[in-house]
Amino acid sequence: MGVMTADALLFLSATPLVPAGFEAVASGAGLLTLALLVWALVEIFRCPGLAPGWKLVLGLLAFTLPFFGPLTAVVMARSHRRRVESGELALTAMAPRGR
Question: Which residues constitute the domain of residue 78?
Fold first, then answer.
């Protein structure tokens, strides 16, 4: 009987259809980043009172930086929406200016 080498055992045990652990983690990270990008775009375009130029800037930020861009865009859009809904931005725009 022949003795099987470690390379032969590794070749027999590896199947190309079953993803390895690192492939599953990379796929999960990619799906998480894609979901975060979609969430960021929805938050940007649903934000009331945000100027179209700022929507474009936040959209480009979300597309150019893989993980931190969408995260930053979501945080900025949600904080802007909260400030608009609470009336904080309307009050500061109407406040008298100091002379």
Answer: 19-94
**How far is Cα 69 from Cα 64, in angstroms, rounded to an integer?**
7
Residue 57 lies in a domain: yes
**pLDDT tier for residue 80 given thresholds of 50, 70 and 90:** confident
Give the chain's domain count: 1
| Segment 14-38 mean pLDDT | 83
The Cα–Cα gap between 50 and 63 comes to 18
Residue 50: strand, helix, or coil: coil
Does a structural domain hold residue 5?
no
pTM, 2 dp: 0.64
